[in-house]
Amino acid sequence: MTGDLDSWLAAAGRELGLDPAEVPTKAVLDVARDVAHGVVRPAAPVTAYLMGVAVGRGADPAEVADRLSELALAWSDPTP
């Protein structure tokens, strides 16, 4: 991670009472990249939020990241 990212995550974590060390940052960034490039850019932050909700409800972060990346990489627009 970069210094700016580390600093931001530390500040955001303090603000929310969370330990950023517990966040699978690389997995979140990888999912966001896959969604932004494979689906549509605005879907990336919303998908990261969905990932957080799923993990907050007890899902395994690595499994969620793998499933979402696979979905994004295989995505084709279902609209005609």
Quickly describe the structure:
With 80 residues, this protein is mainly alpha-helical. The protein has four helices and no strands.
Compute the average pLDDT.
93
Extended strand count? 0
Instruction: Characterize the biggest β-sheet.
Output: none
End-to-end separation: 40 Å
In percent, how much strand structure appears in the residues? under 5%
pLDDT < 50 runs, ≥5 residues: none
Strand-pairing-aware structural class:
mainly alpha
Count of helical regions = 4
- Radius of gyration computed on alpha carbons: 14 Å
Number of domains: 1
Helix proportion range: 55-70%
The rough form would be described as globular
The H/E string reads HHHH
Oligomer: single chain
Domain DUF6457: 4-78
InterPro entries: DUF6457
Organism: Paractinoplanes rishiriensis
Protein name: DUF6457 domain-containing protein
What does this structure look like?
Pfam families: DUF6457. This is DUF6457 domain-containing protein. This protein is an all-alpha fold and 80 residues long. The protein has one domain. Helix content is 69%, strand content 0%. The protein contains 4 helices and no strands. The mean pLDDT is 93.
Label this structure with key terms.
80 residues; mainly alpha; 69% helix; globular
How are the elements arranged and paired?
Elements: H1 3-16, H2 25-38, H3 43-56, H4 61-73
Helix pairs in contact: 2-3, 2-4, 3-4
